[in-house]
Design goal:
The chain is α/β, with parallel strands linked by helices. 28% of the residues lie in helices and 21% in strands. Strand 14, helix 11 and strand 15 form a beta-alpha-beta unit.
């Protein structure tokens, strides 16, 4: 019987889990923590779980693999070299593990981590029907190599290239590539391309397969930008083995309780879209709508030790946010409030503009136009005359911005800009939201767009020779 591979996307984190089955038995690869999504597909397909597989100890989410394997009384397959605190089925390079009428073969592919495994999906005849590559070979890229610390980045980049070559040498051109990262995840070293790929596609497009080793290492390292701060909280639960999640309704807090919590430093996050937040919001709240990469950007700047409260005018928003948050290890926010913002007794509004308004703002001495995109975004293209502070650095660097002026804020899509406006308003500054994507600025003739370039020469690459 033909093998079926089902994608299970987690769009806001940019990751993809997989369910592969033969019509009776399934293997689950890199499941997110909300495993009820896996169970729904298993039930729909009429199959049972035969094994759960982890390509690596993840840095960008808490895995649901251990709980899923225990609930279904199946093997939890992890590299035998991973120093975990739970019982698992430890595999070594080239080991073949039967699952139903098919099998998976573990392949050591270091690079994203030292112990990273990829898994070949083998049919009953031992022929590869797909490759689950985790953070190794992505669609047109590879996984980033600096998550274990910059001291290891060059060494891992060299290993990453070797792993990519190993995979394409082992398997035929038509074998499909199924990566976990690369759909917007910050675990990708460079921008990925496409929703599907094969060995042949990667041979034509992937820098790891097209560049000499030294140049690939140099280009990989030069292209690495900041990654979310919450990543530092993922290793411990993944190595210890995360437990079950609780997605039951949060305690409902009154408006007075929330206002008192805010006075004590609680983060009160408004889950409505940024336009609704700008029109009327509770002073001191921060906009993190569910129409963007909610968990990624909230997790990037939220101090995990602080109190978190969720508010919205829709109960479904709070439930969705809870699901997003458990994936990054924020299990139970302190409470929530569902209702109109006017119930708090006082609301504020934020002025919104578009990029057509920016030329006049740049000429106004009492206006600062602030670009909060990442360094790599800024280098690629930016508006001349704007200030630049990356979003994840804004709270620590807010004193660099003038008091008593308007601060107009933009990012790539306006999502981060809305959150940044909330941060600025909490400091007493007057902030204005440029409420449209940066691409709109490119069509404003009176704006001077500075275009950068990304180039790594073989000379620069030689600087990394002794580290690879």
């Amino acid at each position: 019987m033909a093998l079926t591979v089902i994608n299970l996307d987690t769009l806001t984190l940019g990751d993809r889990s997989y369910i592969a089955h033969d019509g009776k038995v399934a293997v689950i690869i890199d499941p997110q923590r909300d495993i009820d999504r896996v169970q729904e597909i298993i039930t729909r397909e009429g199959v049972e779980i035969g094994a759960v597989v982890e390509t690596h100890m993840h840095n960008d989410y808490v895995s649901g693999g251990l709980v899923l394997a225990r609930e279904h009384h199946v093997q939890y397959i992890v590299n035998a070299e991973d120093p975990v605190d739970f019982e698992r089925f430890g595999v070594i390079d080239s080991q073949v593990i039967p699952v139903g009428s098919f099998a998976i073969q573990a392949l050591h592919t270091p690079g994203h981590t030292f112990t990273h495994m990829s898994y070949a999906l083998l049919d009953a005849n031992g022929k590869a029907q797909g490759l689950f590559t985790g953070g190794s070979l992505l669609h047109g890229s590879t996984g980033r190599t600096d998550l274990l610390g910059w001291d290891h980045a060059a060494t891992l980049a060299g290993l990453q290239q070797g792993s990519a070559h190993r995979l394409v040498e082992l398997f035929e051109d038509g074998v499909a590539i199924h990566p976990t990262h690369g759909f917007g995840s910050f675990c990708a070293a460079t921008t990925t391309s496409g929703d599907s790929s094969t060995i042949a596609d990667e041979k034509r497009t992937n820098p790891a397969l097209l560049l000499e080793k030294e140049l690939f290492i140099a280009q990989t390292l030069a292209g690495l930008d900041a990654f979310p701060e919450y990543y530092k909280h993922m290793s411990a639960p993944n190595h210890a083995g995360a437990g079950p999640i609780d997605l039951s309704a949060l305690p409902q807090m009154s408006t007075d309780e929330i206002l008192r919590a805010m006075q004590k430093g609680a983060w009160v996050v408004d889950l409505r879209n940024r336009t609704s937040w700008a029109a009327a919001h509770v002073p001191g709240t921060i906009s993190f709508g569910l129409d963007g990469s909610f968990a990624t950007y909230l997790g990037w700047i939220f101090p995990y030790e602080e109190t978190l409260v969720l508010i919205s005018d829709q109960a479904t928003d709070v439930a969705t946010a809870q699901r997003e948050l458990v994936r990054i290890g924020i299990d139970r926010p302190a409470g929530s409030h569902i209702g109109d913002m006017e119930s708090f007794g006082q609301t504020a509004s934020t002025k919104t503009v578009t990029f057509v308004d920016v030329p006049s703002a740049l000429a106004d001495p009492v206006v600062t136009v602030l670009d909060i995109r990442r360094n790599s975004e800024r280098t690629a293209s930016h508006i001349e005359g704007t200030r630049h502070i990356p979003f994840h650095e804004l709270s620590a660097r807010v004193d660099e911005l003038p008091q008593g002026t308007e601060i107009w804020v933009h990012c790539g899509g306006a999502y981060r800009a809305a959150a940044a406006v909330g941060i600025l308003e909490k400091t007493g500054r007057t902030a204005v939201l440029i409420n449209e994507p940066y691409e709109a600025a490119l069509s404003v003739a009176s704006l001077n767009i500075v275009v950068g370039s990304f180039d790594v020469s073989p000379v620069a690459a030689s600087d990394f020779k002794n580290k690879a």
